[in-house]
Known about the structure:
Layout: E1 5-7, E2 10-12, E3 18-19, H1 21-34, E4 38-40, E5 51-59, E6 67-72, E7 84-88, E8 93-98, E9 102-110, E10 116-118, H2 137-152, H3 157-163, H4 166-174
Amino acid sequence: MKLVKVVDGHYQDDAGNTLSLAEIDSRFAEQILASTLVRRIEKQHLDVDAAHWQKTIDISATAGQPLSFITLRKHLPEPLPSDWTVDELNASEVLVTLHDNCAFKVDSYRALPVKSAGQLPSGFEPSELYNARFHPRGLAMTIVGVTDALRATGIDWQTIMQHVAPDEVAVFAGSIM
């Protein structure tokens, strides 16, 4: 959340003011609680009021007349529906004639029924703690968690590496994918 940092063993706010634990609690407790635990999904991760969606549109010709449209050849579905005829217009465009009803998917947006979830604290970006190189958020959190767990053992990294093969560590971290 980057509200407080430790400098020379003292807590400081972003302006560099030294804070006691009581001051941290009084200034930031409400913000910390509002930005942790189960809460509304943050828009930077997913817009729950306008999630990308596709709607199906059923199209039919009027009074037995076939329906035609022009499109690029590379946009044709494979295989072609059996009730479509395709006539070449030029090197890249075709005239498609539909002889029956057809369903199309079109881009749309909708509000999701579930709008909250357990999330990492607001502002916490696990990929900032190491050279993430475009790792997905879940993998970045796994790497940070494993690193924290290994450091918390109190065992020197070289001692761990003498007893655990690199592939065993890599398999654990890769399982999140």
